[in-house]
Amino acid sequence: MKPIVSLAACAAALSLAGSAQAAGDYVSIVQETALAVPAETAWAKVKGYCLIGPWLKTTCEITSGKDGELGAVRKIAGRIEEVIVAVTPMSYTYADVDPKIAYHGTVEIRPVSKTSSKLVYSLFFDQTTVPAEQRDANKTRRQQMFAGVMATMKGMAEAK
Among residues 51, 70, 124, 146, which one has the fewest Cβ atoms lying within 10 Å of its Cβ? Predict the structure, then answer.
């Protein structure tokens, strides 16, 4: 009977080892840009949860909850659903609702002085589902896409 218990223990250990190897390949992209307006002014212009539509030049609709509140769900381009998982006075964090895709992002305005602020956009994702040979290009593509988003947001925040 003892060899059977040992075999079961070995099988369990190998099962756990396999799980460790299946860990995610996590990537963080953090982009910042200076704004020539006070933080409150900037936040008032970029805080809308569905403003991502114009930032990405696509559609966005709130499908559940209230814009800017914890638990609000948006649908981008008619196919991507994201939910607000955290809110502060000048930021929100969202996550994809698809359990096969692990990512979240944060849009934040930070005060710098009475007349200036900083826009910070953080994106964190697991690129395990991306083929290994395409991961660097995938990260670069996302960095470039969000650089464009940041430029659009900066223009909105600083507009008179």
Answer: 70
Distance CA 117, CA 37 (A): 6
Six-digit token string for 52 = 């991502």
Which two three-digit tokens encode residue 146?
Answer: 């969000």
List pLDDT tens digits, range 40-80: 999 999 999 999 998 889 999 999 999 999 999 999 999 99
Q: Quick one: how far is CA 40 from the chain centroid?
A: 22
- Taking the alpha carbons at both ends of the chain, their separation in whole angstroms is 80
CA angle, corner 66, sides to 61 and 68, nearest 5? 90
User: In order of start, what are the domains of the chain with their CATH numbers?
Assistant: 24-158 (3.30.530.20)
Q: Are strands 73-76 and 91-96 parallel, antiparallel or unpaired?
A: unpaired
What sign does the CA torsion over 45, 49, 50, 51 have? positive
Length of the chain: 160
